[in-house]
Amino acid sequence: MLKGKIHRVSGPVIIAEGMHGVSVYEVVEVGHDRLIGEVIGVEGEKAIIQVYEDTTGIQVGEPVYATGNPLSAELGPGLIGSIFDGIQRPLTKLEEVVGFLIRRGVKQPSLPRDSKWYFTPVVKPGVKVSSGDIVGYVQETEAVKHYIMVPHGVHGTLEWVASEGKYSIEEPVMRINGKDISMLQKWPVRKPRPYVEKLEIKQPLVVGTRVVDFLFPLGMGGKAAIPGGFGTGKTVSLQTFTKWSHADITIYVGCGERGNEMADALHSFRKLIDPKTGRPLMERSVFIANTSNMPVAAREASVFLGVTIGEYFRDMGYNVLLVADSTSRWAEAMREISGRLEELPGEEGFPAYLGSRLASFYERSGLVKAMGSPERVGSLTIIGAVSPPGADFSEPVTQSTLRVVRALYALDVSLAYRRHYPAINWLTSYSLYTEDVSKWWINIEPEYPTLRELFMKILQREAELEELVRLVGADALPVEDRLILEVARMIREDFLQQDALSLEDAYSPPLKTALMAKAIKLFYEKAQEAIKIGVPFEKVREMRVREKIARMKNIPFSTPQDQLITFFNDLYKSIIDEFNEITNEVESRVQSSRT
Ligand SMILES: Nc1ncnc2c1ncn2[C@@H]1O[C@H](COP(=O)(O)OP(=O)(O)O)[C@@H](O)[C@H]1O
Ligand SMILES: [Mg+2]
Asked: Residue 254 Cα, ligand 2 centroid: separation in angstroms?
């Protein structure tokens, strides 16, 4: 093992000398305590190293050992349900998550070595195999079948495969061209895992939040950001998405947020039940916690560790959702390291490579045809929270993020202040997946494109009218515009507002979402007709059925489809009946005045 010594210490950054032959991104062990670090620059025989553990007390002259390996993730059975820190050390106690139990230099394997997993082979020896081929599986939890794949770069004749039974992750389960291979794989976290090809996104990743699914759909395999000021609902939104999304596997990266918040999140996550399987949500989740109390350098690693694990499950053919809270803290860590390196700073002190580093994270999302047989398609969807200081979206991290993501959920301070949750601003948010997934939506509801367009038009018109209302008051507006304002309010309050804690409405299945939208459209059309034949606007505004529309969101999401349809058909009938009532009144008055 190559050995140099510490020349200079500057917080999490150290400079070591005598490091001939070491390369960038190589893992090193620093000091007598052998703290984990990564080489981030080489100048002659000097290496610049970022240390992933607390460097307090480290002295100039202490040894530095090179390992020859890049920073890698351990992949294999044992991942699901785990909580790791940024460099994949297992965290088992809540105190560790909070960051108060920082154990320096502890070398503990990421995945347990002593656990035995029940392996079932699915191929017979004698066949030719290559990278990505599925050789067998382990039913890791009730929800997750963990496929054991031929590691990347390995191909040849499968000479032997283990028979059904229990194995640890280090015991061989296959032999290819004379080489014994176990279930444990390693993969360098900064290197994207290979796939055959990226595919066009045609399906949404349903998250059960109406403003997302219906107005700004997230593509399955897509990349999105959720920027918002303090307290606008980033964490709640990400938790809601991970809880309810239709993904098979969820990866939650807590990056630089407060430790107690992360512990809370974990605590509540542990109690959550997966609505699809009725099993604990932890049984299809992986947690990575790098809280604000933990060394800053590891924040960067935590994000890439998360995507690597995500890609690994994607390669098995799963749909994976990764959320990162918050990418701003990660960017701040980058700024701190860059500052210590005395690099030429870019905007607001962030390094010039901020944009490309953010891109290298988001660009690992995608819908792909995975390598190996049997043929399979998997996806990795990424949503990153961004916390711009002062909720000012013009700052560098938000702006650089906007350049790479294809959907944006802009959280709005004034909406949060008015308790309009989720506080996703419908005027500034967007999704470039809308077209891609509209066929999928049309299958659920043929009117989807018209409904969505109508809602967007009414909401935009409302925003235009607001100024006028401030000047002259709503009563001075033409009756068509007053109707627009009423319907816009219905869209906002009865459709877009969705309480993340509601037992009935925290999740909105696509069908319920569509049927709700249709109720509002029906009301709007009937109201337009009524007004045209002279029904006074006040009559429309005070209709009893509006109360019923306001309550439609409370039909529980677990309601069976046929009952859901019956419920909404009844609602539509009530709308039509009451409109008939008030228009008949007007018509009979007109008639009696004629006779
Ligand atoms: N969708 C939602 N439903 C209900 N309450 C919400 C929702 N989103 C946010 N909140 C409220 O806002 C508070 C702050 O949200 P949080 O996600 O912690 O903000 P951030 O992470 O952006 O600082 C939450 O504690 C909750 O009371
Ligand atoms: Mg938060």
From this structure: 9
**Predicted confidence (pLDDT) at residue 150 exceeds the cutoff of 90:** yes
Closest CA to 346 of 398, 397, 295, 402: 397
- Whether residue 409 is predicted with pLDDT greater than 90 in this model: the reply is yes
Which contiguous run of DSSP H or E holds residue 238?
Answer: helix 234-244
pLDDT of 93 reads 64
Counting atoms of ligand 1 from 1, which one is nearest the CA of 422? 1
Rounded CA separation 393/491 (Å): 26
For residues 500, 503, 509, 511, the Cα torsion angle rounded to the nearest 10 degrees is: -120
pLDDT of residue 589: 80
pTM: predicted TM-score of the whole model, two decimal places: 0.95
413 C-beta closer than 6 A to ligand 1: no
Pocket of ligand 1 contains residue 235 by CB under 6 Å: yes
Neighbours of 23 (CB within 10 A): 12
What fold, for 3-70? Elongation Factor Tu (Ef-tu); domain 3 (2.40.30)
Query: Would you report the helix, strand and coil content of the chain in percent, each value rounded to 5?
Result: 40, 25, 40
Q: Is the CB of 388 under 6 A from ligand 1?
A: no
CA–CA dist 279, 333 (Å, integer): 37
Is residue 286 within 8 A of residue 269, CB to CB? The reply is no
Q: Pick the ligand that lies closest to the CA of residue 262.
A: 2
Fold of 197-432: Rossmann fold (3.40.50)
**Closest C-alpha to ligand 1, atom 11:** 233
The CATH number of 448-594 is which of 3.30.70.1890, 1.20.140.10, 3.30.540.10, 1.10.1140.10? Answer: 1.10.1140.10
For residue 305, the CA-to-ligand 2 centroid distance in Å is: 21
Arithmetic mean of pLDDT, 167-190: 97
* DSSP letter for each residue of 328-358: HHHHHHHHHHHHHTTPPB-GGG-BTTHHHHH
Please give the pLDDT value at position 298.
Answer: 85
Q: How confident is the model at residue 224 (pLDDT cuts 50, 70, 90)?
A: very high
Q: Count the neighbouring beta carbons within 10 Å of the beta carbon of residue 317.
A: 20
Per-residue confidence band for 340, with pLDDT thresholds at 50, 70 and 90: confident
Mean pLDDT of the chain: 93
